[in-house]
Amino acid sequence: MSVELGSKSEQFITMSSVVQGLRKSVTRNSVYTDTNELLGTLMEFWYHSQQQPESDFATGMRSFEAFTASYLPDLDPNSKKKWVGLLSGYINHFDSGFLGLTVSGSASVSFQSSDRWIQINNERIGDQTYFDFVSRSLLAQVKILAESGYYTGDPGLYYHASGSAALSDIGEYDAILSSNRLLDKNREIKTGEFASVSWGGVLAHVYASLGARIGYATPRWFDEFGVVFGIDKDAMNEFCIQKGIPNPHHQTYIGNGILLGDEVPLSFVREIYSTSLRKVVDLADWGRKYCPNAKVLPYGVVELPLRAGISKEQVPLFVSNL
């Protein structure tokens, strides 16, 4: 489908066909064949709108809220969650600013010959071979951190995933609040489980995990990105005791669902990760204002061991050989 936009009517017809195609994925509760192509086309439209910021077309592409108001005015709350889930899945895994990717078969050839990507792993599953790549700019940052001792020892952190759309509220309240607390303040819940899956309910706690995971980091639009907070365990545990909350504990056997109460003060945040390399600088600006003592890093620095199939402690030797 062409993304060259002509008259306003041509823009509407083309956008209408993209939106109608994506509606099929939402209503079927599954991704059909053309979904990623349509999402890619939608992203190209968004890029085009940035070149014409004063146009009527750009008005409807400025944000997720503007897009849904212009092209999905009848969107019900449950369908809205499904759209957020669809968009965040694409943005996290297919946006060219993402930190790493997995491709199979002949698709790997262009990445293997690229100056931008470097292969770190491959795995044979059935009759397909899957190749893992990371960007060279990310690898350069990983090497610096490895030399500084970043990958040795227990970081002593809980991890909570969110999205950039929530940063304004988090900064205003100087804390990460549970969805229940946000609703009490008449604030819209823009990210997380409640905002992105049909079964997501209002949660009384901020949920965390022992390892950094994207989880419900939910960028809803093409200028948004996932954010993962690394929270000081000792400080958080003491805070819970002071508030009469049971010591944070595992709710599931895999380490997800650690209950941190309804509030995590930003003063307990030690690290913040961006799921987009392009947005690390923007997140760093936010961090300097609201979490001045926290390191701001690309999420790939903690994701790389998972993609490479190695332990955290093996990272320094691994990257020295690349």
Provide a descriptive summary of the structure in words.
The structure is a single chain. By secondary structure, this protein is an alpha+beta fold. Among the domains are: 68 residues, no CATH class; 153 residues, no CATH class. The chain is 43% helix and 17% strand. It is built from 14 helices and eleven strands. The protein has a four-stranded mixed sheet with strand order 4-7-10-11, sandwiched between helices. The protein has a three-stranded antiparallel sheet with strand order 1-3-2. β2 and β3 form a beta hairpin. α1 packs antiparallel against α2. The two termini are 39 Å apart.
Would you kindly provide a brief summary of this structure?
With 322 residues, the chain is an alpha+beta fold. The protein contains 14 helices and 11 strands.
Principal-axis shape equals globular
Poorly predicted ranges: 1-13
Which range does the strand content fall in? 15-25%
Straight-line N-to-C gap: 39 Å
List strands and helices in order, with pairings:
Blueprint: H1 8-28, H2 35-51, H3 56-59, H4 64-71, H5 77-94, E1 100-104, H6 108-112, E2 117-125, E3 128-135, H7 136-147, E4 157-163, H8 167-173, E5 175-177, H9 179-184, H10 193-196, E6 207-208, E7 226-232, H11 233-242, E8 258-259, E9 263-265, E10 269-274, H12 280-290, E11 295-298, H13 300-308, H14 315-320
Parallel strand pairs: 10-11
Antiparallel strand pairs: 1-3, 2-3, 4-7, 5-9, 6-8, 7-10
